[in-house]
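fyi for ur records
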Amino acid sequence: MRAVVQRVQRASVTHGARTESIEKGLLVLLGVARGDGLEEAVWMAHRIANLRVFPDTAQKMRYAIIDHGFDVLVISQFTLLADTSSGHRPSFTPAAPAEVAEPLYQHVVQQLQGTNGVGSVKNGMFGQHMQVEMINDGPVTFLLES
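which gave:
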């Protein structure tokens, strides 16, 4: 499982007439790899909730979303698993098939929703073309891999 985690002032995802948005918190682009299971989903949710990327008064990254009740927006992003090592067209073979990836993606969302201290948890529409907007705070961006 691979995630790009960005600290944001605000973020939103739109698909058709449906828009989900958050205020201060984390935007998480999440890719599920072949071979991933519940263990990786639980690990990823825990890591996201506890990642200390928010500054204290001295501007040291000391706080996690659970410390301040910040929000999370999780968006499925299978392209994070692309193999670009050969040729000019990415191969998506390393990504889990949708029937495996979607339940694990939803499990990460549910784990975050059930974590004490996490604010609002919103998510994108799995397998759909979406428009994502965000104001990156910092910029602060991290790559997590289980």
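Residues 69 and 118 are 5 Å apart (CA to CA). thats all i got for now
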